[in-house]
From TrEMBL:
It is a multi-pass membrane protein. This is Manganese transport system membrane protein MntD. It comes from Paenibacillus abyssi. Pfam families: ABC-3. Belongs to the ABC-3 integral membrane protein family.
Amino acid sequence: MSYTGWILLTASLVGLSCGLIGVFLILRRMAMMADAISHSVLLGIVIAFIITRQLSGGHMLIGAIIAGLLTAVLVQWFNSLSIQHDASIGVVFTTLFAIGVILIATQVGNAHLDVKHALMGEITFVPWNTIELPFIGAVPEAAFLLAIVLIVVLLAILAFYKEWKITSFDPALAASLGIPVMLMHYVFMSLVSVTTVASFDAVGAIMVVAMLITPAAAAYLWTDRLSVMLVLSGAFGVLSAISGYYIAVWLDTSISGSMAFATGLVFMISFLGSPKHGLLSRVIRPFTIPSA
């Protein structure tokens, strides 16, 4: 595959996996948790590096998952102490992210790990960091990791589709049916953390947040069916990744930034043109003469 092809594939995998996870973030009204976890995983990544002195490997995933779960637990704990949910998120993620930034500045040194890289990523380097796979050959490590994460996300959604659906729409009903709501919550936070850190090195925190929230929010405007919303959100994520790349080439600017911008364009088109919830349909509907 060509250099451009690997970049597009990697970005598309980010858009697809984040798009699927983002649907449940939107339905659970936890969109800001995406922002919180995408920033707080930096602390887990930095601590994992300080312990192992390696920038790749399973320890990075483990550190990120722990940081993501710590964020979820602390937000839940502060909220139980009568602190507003959005305030809890703001306090937790800014504090954990700040600790990560301080550790980078004071402990990491000259390693290829800095705040700019954490925020924007560097997807142009992805095709050069490869691993050898049997029967396939050399593939970018980021693309391979993202493919594994996508498979895990798909299996988790398919295996517990009914549970995710009920706990997202009506947690009280789910609890009355014997579904372990809190366990499902923390399993979901683990999926968010894994997806975030798999995308983190390639595209950075800004694009991860954009891909987790905006395609799902756009899909929400087009349909009320969960299955259709999942398909649309994944498709919007891929569309944003591909169109964002060519916008970046056209403008000679940041690829990750352009992909995040493309998610905004997809949302604006959906906000204006959705036949049911779009702005134009709301304006036109009152003037439509009902048939006899």
